[in-house]
Amino acid sequence: MKEEHDSNNSRKVGGKHININFFWFLIIILTSIILSAVITALSLEAGNEKAVNVGTDTRSEFSKLYSVYDTITDNYYEDVDRNALIESSIQGMVEGLDDPYSEYMNNEEIASFEESVSGDFEGIGAEVMQEGSRIIITSPMRGSPAEEAGVEPGDEILAVDDEPVEGMNVQEAVQLIRGEKGTDVTLTLARNEGDPFEITITRDTIHIDSVTYEEVDGVGHISINRFQRGTNDEFEAKLNEAAEANIEDLIIDFRYNPGGLLDEAVGMINQFVDEGETVLYLEENGGERKEITAPGPSNDNTDDFNLYILINEGSASASEVFTGAMDDLTDVTIAGTESFGKGIVQQTIEFGDDSLLKYTDTKWLTPEGDWIHEKGITPDIRLLNPDYYRVEMLGPDEVFTEGISDESVPSIKVALDTLGYPMDDFDESYDKKLTKTVKKFQADNDLDQTGNVTGETATAIMSELRTYINENDAQLNYLVDYINGEFTRSEIEKYAKEHAEILEIQKPEEDDSEESSEESPDEEDTEE
User: Looking at the record, which segments are called Disordered (predicted)?
Assistant: First the structure.
């Protein structure tokens, strides 16, 4: 039996018999199977690099995303940049929020973002935001090249140096607008659904002094341009300066202030309210509210001020946080026009590759629980800016001449009337009286006396009007006159309204604007 069993496990090779023990025979077979499996697995992994193993170890909602990624990387007719695919998919995910304040930033964009909260950058000095596919100017910064060139809140950027911005996100548009100090950039803009026009702006180094102080006819005037790092410290210094000058009436001016760092706004409120006082609430998507309180003692120098806050349609976010809190907690008087209405807050999260996600995570509410989003804050004293603030931009390539009727003609008449060339009417007719007035303006400015508004004449009218506006702050003067007792509240409101009845008043559409800080939740548009 033993010989028979052994013969069943023997093999004849070259006329010789080789006997194999059954145990070692099994070992050889198993080893071969294992080695074959390992080689096959390594081969598959090297030759077919998939993003994921869909359906086994991955969340099912991402299966389509992974399938698209694998299909493109495996089958696209050219080599693809895999990292670019991933970055663009993240960008698309954030854009899918349809939230102009949420954005994903790469390394270069983060550098721009950091500049915006530190206060120094090179550019034109304007806050921009994305509204759907549109790039909108939220506000030009006071004293910036953009403001001096005539850029206004609500202007839509159509092109930068003739390159259309359609399809760009806000950061891409900002990168086109930014540039070295002393270089020019030409913006193609649209205003109030009017025809496109161009403005050429010389870039400069923009240092944002976030707080400035002056006295106007015995009234203290503190202007806050934005909420950046250190703004509260600057604000405290100006408050103390006003107190040392024995100022009784103090205006805090937030016009065209797009917001910024939330903790700076909290610190500024704390100058006026005691430690532990609720200054705002943050509300998450589940409705849970977090109470934000004043972190320290108030500033004793603020006790005796008669306080006024000046706002307009460009006052947003942290400006509204401060104004809303002071309205609820103190005896402040708010003047100007309705604020922008941004009642949401952004937070940031950084990733290991130096990219950053800024996203809206909460609402903010005033101490009394009011949510001002898309409504804004209504002033106690409504002070409309005069018509000359709403003059339509006159492009040098346009031609306005006697006999035409055009919707831009009232702007020409308002501008000339403001500059000391009185007009009898402000209709759309370019009549003989307007031709005569234009010739007088041309003679005074050493221009060819054609009677037409075009070329150098249009440029000169716009330039002189901007200078006039910069030297005559109508809303501020209205409020100072009221404080000094020259008008009652109803009288100053009526006076302002009567000087704002020719050109239509339009509030910029709801967008951003805002920014975040690594220190605290924040807000805002992207700064150029």
Answer: 501-528
- HSE of 346 in the Cβ direction (CA atoms, 13 Å)? 29
Q: Are 177 and 160 in contact, with CB atoms under 8 Å apart?
A: yes
> By the 8 A CB rule, do 261 and 228 touch?
yes
Q: Which pLDDT score, from 0 to 100, does residue 13 have? A: 40
User: Cα separation of 158 and 316, whole Å?
Assistant: 24
Q: Whose CA is closest to 320, among 246, 248, 265, 387?
A: 265
Query: 509 Cβ partners below 8 Å, 6+ apart?
Result: 131, 136, 154
Q: Encode burial over 442-458: b for 16+ CB neighbours within 10 A, e otherwise.
A: beeeebeeebbbbbebb
Query: How far is residue 150's CA from residue 432's CA, in Å, rounded to a whole number?
Result: 29
Whole-angstrom Cα distance, residue 358 to residue 355?
10
pLDDT for 89 equals: 94
Q: What is the pTM of this model?
A: 0.71
Give catalytic residues, as residue numbers.
317, 328, 342
Amino acid 106: pLDDT: 81
**How far apart (Å, rounded) are the C-alpha atoms in residues 10 and 300?**
106
At 355, give phi and psi (nearest 5°). Answer: -95, 165
- How much is the pLDDT for 130? 80
Backbone angles phi, psi at 190, to 5 degrees: -130, 135
Q: Which of 478, 488, 314 is nearest to 385 (CA)?
A: 478
Q: Do the beta carbons of residue 363 and residue 283 sit within 8 Å?
A: yes
Instruction: Give the separation between CA 441 and CA 8, rounded to whole angstroms.
Output: 121
Cα 203–Cα 207–Cα 209 angle in degrees, nearest 5: 140
Distances (CA, A) of 407 to 140, 359, 392, 424, 431: 25, 41, 9, 17, 14
What pLDDT, on the 0 to 100 scale, is given for residue 31?
Answer: 65
- For residue 56, the tally of other CB atoms under 10 A from its CB is 6
Block means of pLDDT (10 residues each) for the chain, 528 residues, are 38 46 62 60 49 56 92 96 94 93 84 72 87 81 88 92 92 90 95 87 86 97 93 97 98 95 97 98 94 98 97 96 98 97 93 89 97 97 96 86 96 97 96 98 97 92 87 96 98 97 69 36 38
